From TrEMBL:
Keyword Metal-binding: no
Domain named VWFA: residues: 96-295
Transmembrane region(s): 6-25, 59-81, 318-336
Record keywords: Membrane, Transmembrane, Transmembrane helix
Source organism: Schaalia odontolytica
Keyword Transmembrane: yes
Coiled coil residues, start to end: none
Protein name: VWFA domain-containing protein
Length: 338
């Protein structure tokens, strides 16, 4: 209620006006001297017709008073300017998430499942901007930061389909079709001297964020086994320090159980936790739900601290009751012969 103090003011004014009007009408009646008695009319009060008219008049007066009261109260509430108050949050529009996918040979058997996991994660987003980058020896941006979820889902679907149809596993060996290698050609080293450069890949994903001069929430979902072949510009520790300096949270999706981690898995887990992120088994069905819950928990904390109180005028209900009271009162006056 924006002007709550107007409610008692309006009620007081109406009450005073009613009392003054009643007193003036009473004095006018006394001055006119029209009141008198009529002989031999006492028996009329005992007639059934008379008693029925008295009951109807009293009922009509009671209903008229109720209608008048409804109209007055509703008018006073309307004068107080009723409003709806709610907290508006704008943090979701300032959240950026980069999906950072290792597409090296050791990761290809997992990439299709991770693509499906990413599609599930996207289905929980609302207002966030997302990006997808593939990396091996080099990095390739599949799509930059965007809130076009349909396009992002299509790209992820195409990636999963290309890997599913192009990946060939014979015994313990993994190979791919020409179509798959053409798809991944931009991230491959022609000389095959380096592969799975997680430090360079992560650094490239960090540089995929824009508006660095603005306060935004920045998260990277890093899918990798951290099995590095060769030497790049950044190692994992240096890339993590770069992420921390940019205010980026890194959460890892690792293709293996965290019960018996390799050295690479332990290193990846310990490093991403330095940024405030966490470590999940990408092959576990619960991994996606855990990542989504983490993102939603972070979002709730931000929204609770950044809410803005908004007010919207809602006079409709009060005005509606005013109209009902006035129309009902006029109807009783017209048809009740008051």
């Amino acid at each position: 209620m924006r002007f709550w103090w107007l409610i008692p003011v309006v009620l007081a004014v109406v009450a005073i006006a009613t009392v003054v009007g009643w007193l003036l009408a009473r004095r006018a009646g006394v001055r006119s001297g029209k009141k008198g008695w009529v002989a031999n009319t006492g028996y009329l009060r005992g007639l059934p017709k008379y008693q029925a008219l008295v009951r109807r008049t009293r009922a009509s007066l009671a209903m008229a008073f109720v209608c008048f009261l409804i109209a007055v109260i509703a008018t006073s509430v309307s004068a107080g300017a009723p409003v709806d108050r709610y907290v508006k949050h704008d943090k979701s529009a300032s959240r950026d998430i980069v999906l950072c996918l290792d597409s090296s040979g050791s990761m290809l058997p997992y990439d299709s499942k991770i693509g499906e996991a990413f599609r599930q994660i996207i289905s929980h987003f609302e207002g966030e901007r997302i990006s997808l980058q593939l990396w091996d020896a080099y990095s390739m941006t599949m799509f930059p930061l965007t809130d076009d979820y349909d396009m992002a889902t299509d790209v992820l679907q195409d990636m999963s389909d290309t890997i599913d149809t192009g990946l060939i596993q014979i015994g313990g060996k993994v190979s791919g079709t020409r179509e798959l290698f053409e798809y991944l050609e931009p991230v491959l080293d022609e000389d095959q001297q380096v592969s799975s450069l997680v430090g360079d890949g992560l650094a490239s994903c960090i540089m995929g964020f824009d508006h660095n001069d603005k306060q935004r929430s920045r998260t990277i979902l890093l899918a990798t086994d951290n099995e590095v072949y060769g030497e790049g510009v950044y190692d994992l520790s240096e890339a993590i320090e770069f992420a921390k300096s940019q205010g980026v949270t890194v959460t890892a999706l690792y293709p293996g159980s965290d019960i018996s981690l390799t050295y690479q898995g332990l290193q990846l887990r310990d490093e991403v936790r330095k940024t405030g992120g966490d470590f999940y088994d990408a092959s576990s069905p619960s991994a996606v739900d855990s990542v989504v819950k983490q993102i939603e928990a972070e979002q709730k904390e931000e929204l609770d601290s950044a809410g803005k109180m908004m007010e919207t005028d809602r006079p409709g209900a009060a005005l509606g009751w005013t109209l009902i009271g006035v129309v009902s009162l006029l109807g009783l006056l017209a048809f009740g012969r008051l």
